[in-house]
Structures are given as structure tokens and as C-alpha cells.
Design brief:
Elements lengths: L2 H21 L3 H22 L2 H20 L4 H21 L4 H19 L2 H21 L3 H28 L1 H19 L1
Helix pairs in contact: 1-2, 1-7, 2-3, 3-4, 3-5, 4-5, 5-6, 6-7
């Protein structure tokens, strides 16, 4: 198998996993699929010669896995883990500096570090949306069709994920559910008169 074919294959597989996680309502599934997708994006970036992006993708895989493990523990563990991953992202960016693209991928990594450790639902997916926007320039710069498509579809999937989790959260909110029958009853009463 040629390196070019392997690069395309890893990009397509990573794209599928990324999209699956973003549209899924379960945050645990999002974190798990994002971890595996990040490993594949790491390989994809290495095959394309984008070392800074590969470092950020490898960090993403590790960070997302750690966030899923630490998520059930106390606040202190989350604070330390998040701080460690932010510092590692900044150090990796400095070591693999390639100009503006590195600044954008580092910003995406810092934002997602905060998101996976502290946010859930629509807010987490919104951070993923911002991350996809920041990664879009890198994808365009290294001429990776899978990453360009991945970020474009990632933006759409994250937008849908934000909408879907907000819609589900409203349906699951007992306060809003209790208020809905009253509103419906009032509408019915006013239409009768």
C-alpha cells in the first residue's frame, strides 16, 4: 500500500469517526470516538508531513481519553489534568512551530482541552465547532482533501450536534415539561372561547 493511499484511508476513517461522535447525543461516546479519530488524524498528518498538526492530534487523543477517565473523579483531578494538557499543547506548539497554522491549531487544542474537561452537551459540541473552524486553515494549507472535507463536515455535524443536544436538553428538563401542559391547556381554553 502506498503512503498516499494510506494517508487517504486514515483520513477517511478518521472523518467517519469524528462525524459519528459529533452527532451522537452521548458525551461519553463523543469522547471515545474522538480519541480514536484523533489517533487516525495523527497518522494522517504524519503521512502528509504536517508535524505540528500531528503533535496536536496525538495530544487530542491522549487528552480526550484522559478527560473521559478523569470526568468521574473530583474537581481537583479535572483542574490538574486540564492545566497539564493546556501546558503540553503550548509546549508542543512551541517545539513544532510552523507559523500561523501552529497558532490556530494550538488555540483549538487549548479550547478543546477546556471543553472536554468542563463542558457537556451543546456547549461541548460548540467548542468542537470552533475547533473545526480553527483547524480548517491547517487542512487547506497542507492540501488534505480528507481534512478539508472533515472540517467542513465537522462544522456541519457540530452545528447539528449543538442543535440536537439543546433540543434534547429542553425535552429532558422537568421544569419545562411541567410548564408545557399548562401552556397547551391555556391555548386550548382560549381557542374554545
Amino acid at each position: 500500500m502506498s503512503l498516499s493511499l494510506l494517508a487517504h484511508a486514515t483520513g477517511i476513517a478518521a472523518l467517519g469517526l469524528s462525524l459519528n461522535g459529533l452527532v451522537n447525543r452521548c458525551d461519553h461516546t463523543l469522547r471515545r470516538t474522538n480519541s480514536v479519530a484523533s489517533l487516525l488524524w495523527t497518522l494522517n498528518n504524519l503521512l502528509l508531513g504536517a508535524t505540528s498538526a500531528a503533535a496536536m492530534s496525538a495530544l487530542s487523543a491522549t487528552r480526550t481519553t484522559a478527560a473521559d477517565l478523569v470526568h468521574r473523579r473530583g474537581e481537583r483531578a479535572r483542574h490538574w489534568a486540564c492545566a497539564a494538557f493546556v501546558l503540553i499543547a503550548l509546549a508542543a506548539s512551541a517545539l513544532t512551530w510552523q507559523g500561523w497554522p501552529t497558532l490556530l491549531t494550538a488555540s483549538a487544542s487549548v479550547a478543546v482541552s477546556f471543553g472536554v474537561f468542563y463542558l457537556a452537551g451543546a456547549q461541548l459540541r460548540f467548542v468542537m465547532l470552533v475547533s473545526a473552524l480553527l483547524w480548517s486553515y491547517n487542512a487547506w494549507l497542507i492540501h488534505s482533501p480528507e481534512q478539508i472535507m472533515g472540517n467542513s463536515l465537522g462544522i456541519a455535524a457540530a452545528s447539528y450536534g449543538v442543535w440536537r443536544t439543546r433540543k434534547t436538553a429542553k425535552q429532558d428538563d422537568p421544569v419545562q415539561q411541567a410548564a408545557m401542559p399548562q401552556i397547551t391547556h391555556r391555548v386550548r381554553a382560549s381557542t374554545v372561547l
